[in-house]
Amino acid sequence: MNYWLDLSIEYANQRNYLDDLFQVYPTIPEGIRDLDSKNWLVIEKAFNSKNNIDLLKSLLKLDLFPLKDSYIAYLRRDKLSIERNPATVDRICGRLYEMGLNTIWTRCTEAKETNRQIGPLFKRWLNKKSLGLQPLKMPDFMGSDDNAILDANDNEAKLFAQKYLNYNRNKGLDFIARFNKKYIIGEAKFLTDFGGHQNAQFNDAIEILKDSKVKAITIAIL
Predict the structure, then answer these.
(1) 196/194 Cα distance (integer angstroms)
(2) Which of 67, 108, 196, 206 is the most core-located residue (most Cβ within 10 A)?
């Protein structure tokens, strides 16, 4: 078995793995979303007067629509389609009237799901010198061959790896570092279970390990 994988399994089984993992991924639910007070007044007025068009248009301005419906994304992208599809508007608004204003408010102000927050947390952890090195911006990283971690967004990291490390995937990178004059590139994924999207995330990270042409050590941080 790979040395690091063996250590990881031992670590997860014998130590406070979840407590330590929380230092990297502090998935604390956010507070409720703020709603624009003026827009909410329009929503209340349209709801009380049964003005379907104004109600729908005002609710579509919010980050979170109060009910799940397969047609909402289309209406959000093409506002003119609201007037062209009265039966769809009546159907959706009928469900909204059944919900009531209090439930609509509650749904629209729900906190973001924690799995929507985790994207930047790994790099935030890195930037706290969590590996013993202060991540460096591109000019400083390229200005020496000392041990260093690159402080860059996913796309900047991808472009660096494509230009200097023969990286050919059209996908951003979570981690680029240089240790003992060897480059290391990697993907970081926070996996909470098996199946569906989690398996796809796992497979996406593992793909980087299959790139035999890249001029760097490739790692998957799972």
Answers:
(1) 7
(2) 108
